[in-house]
Amino acid sequence: MYIDTEPYAGDAVAASYDLIFASRDYAGENARLIATIRAANPKAASVLDVACGPGRHLELLAEEFVDAAGVDLSPAMVSMAEGRVPEGVPVTVGDMRDFDLGRRFDAVVCLFGSVGYMRDTPVLDTAIARMAAHLNPGGVLVVEPWHTPDTFEPERTIPLASRDGGNAMTTLIVQRVEDGYGVMDMYHVVALGLEVHTIHEVHRQGLFTDAEYRASFEAAGLSVTAEEDAAGGAGLYVGVLR
Question: The Methyltransferase domain covers which part of the protein (predicted)?
Fold first, then answer.
């Protein structure tokens, strides 16, 4: 199966998504995320997860915030999230470039480098503005960026393997730069029980600079700071609606 979509939807890999990222520390990531939200908006009671995928972060956010919701481009991912999050947590199919839920939240988050699929700065500006439009006054937007031109490593191969019960997956990621975009070819061999299939995904994402991320936040009316990750890069951009 070959997948090359813009923006990336993820329908074709939804069934294997949890296996692909089985080693991800969702609990640890959420603890940091909640601390970041609370530091910027201590009284935050509502949160929206944009590009929520199968709801792994959203289900944990719903334990912390009395009012939680999610939105994702992929109907298959939305279906998975609906089956995972607590009853009453709405998950909506929507595109971060033009979604409108008709309400506002104390916090909006967009994780896992999903904004990289916007590819170009005008589209990034549009997506950040859409997220900011869903914030209450004083609300906080937390965005986990994808690679910058300085952190993306072209001509690199990355082998991965994961197992979950009777299911297993091996993945080879090949990175390159093409037309100024960071491109990752991901070759998966997936075994769901005794059923084995292959998936080839192509991810093309914008290599935005720190200045471009900050400019998008500022243009949307947000004051912005960056929290560094362990490697010293911008692990999270945090914007507060002025």
Answer: 47-139
Q: Does 167 lie in the same domain as 61?
A: no
- Residue 4: is its pLDDT beyond 50? no
Cα–Cα distance list, 45 to 123, 187, 214 (Å): 29, 40, 26
On whether both 76 and 21 belong to a single domain, the answer is yes
| Beta strand ranges found along 32-98 (DSSP E) | 46-50, 67-72, 91-93
The rounded distance, in Å, linking the Cα atoms of 200 and 45 is 40
Is residue 143 domain-shared with residue 46, that is, in the same domain?
A: yes
- Name the residue range of residue 130's domain: 2-148+207-241
Residue 78 has pLDDT above 70, yes or no: yes
The rounded distance, in Å, linking the Cα atoms of 18 and 201 is 16
Q: What is the mean pLDDT of residues 152-181?
A: 93
Instruction: Clarify whether residues 13 and 123 are in a common domain.
Output: yes
Given pLDDT bands bounded at 50, 70 and 90, which one contains residue 234? low
Regarding whether 100 and 114 lie in a shared domain, the answer is yes
Q: State whether 126 and 202 are in the same domain.
A: no
For residues 138-147, average pLDDT = 96
Is residue 26 within 8 Å of residue 109, measured between CB atoms? Answer: no
Strand partners, 109: 49, 142
In this predicted structure, the answer to whether residue 7 has a pLDDT above a threshold of 80 is: no
pLDDT at residue 231 greater than cutoff 70 = no
131 near 96, Cβ under 8 Å?
Answer: yes
